[in-house]
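Hey,

Quick one before I head out. I ran the complex with guanosine-5'-monophosphate overnight. Inputs first:
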Amino acid sequence: MDRSDNFQRRGLMFILSSPSGTGKTTIARRLLEEDAEISLSVSATTRPMRPGEIDAKDYYFVTQGEFDRMVADDEFYEWAEVFGHSYGTPKAHIRAGLKEGRDYLFDIDWQGTQQLYQKDQQDVVRVFLLPPSIDELRRRLTGRGTDSAAVIQARMDRARAEISHWDGYDYVVINDDIDLCFEKVQQILEAERMRRQRQTGLIGFVRGLMG
Ligand code: ADP
Ligand code: 5GP
């Protein structure tokens, strides 16, 4: 993107959450493809690598011992056990990137969002996507073709619980038309980048303007 306002700035942590099936993955992928300044946060995990996965791209694959040491040394923004393995968001890489003006995308649920926000309120922007209706959510989950009827029902039940956390977010966007929704998400990101306190290069610029 050609930016006329490309002063030095601090990056931000852009959180996208939604009830499963709403379209979060679709929006996230598109954002990563079209916006060169944002990259996906890479988690650490103790689970074995799956075929095709790349260390330090899909995850940082670590031993349980290394993971435990990182927890003890407070090296995670947040961590959790999922399906018997440990997963966490390491701070070091992100902290360094934020300083250089890189933005990070987080595809996490409301609990992870709360933890991240508690650790770093200034850098976090929380966006929640909602489906236009419950019927449409069911249609999307069915249409995706990745889950059995039982799994779809379980996701529908969980979706109601997830929707109830809508008020823990800074922005709420309804994903009715995908292009419109994507545009709105892009606009939120652009506006947040222009927040005065993130534009660390502004002081020098304004001094120059004032002679
Ligand atoms: P999530 O990551 O929130 O679980 P996905 O991005 O996998 O959801 O989307 C679920 C399904 O709905 C996918 O098949 C996707 O192509 C479709 N989808 C996403 N957004 C829309 C939309 N605005 N209109 C219609 N279908 C959509
Ligand atoms: P998978 O092993 O299939 O890649 O991921 C399993 C689950 O772990 C997913 O639900 C994913 O959202 C979750 N997960 C991945 N990384 C993290 C992380 O850094 N923190 C937390 N809390 N969960 C994660």
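The chain has one domain: 13-195.

Talk tomorrow,
K.
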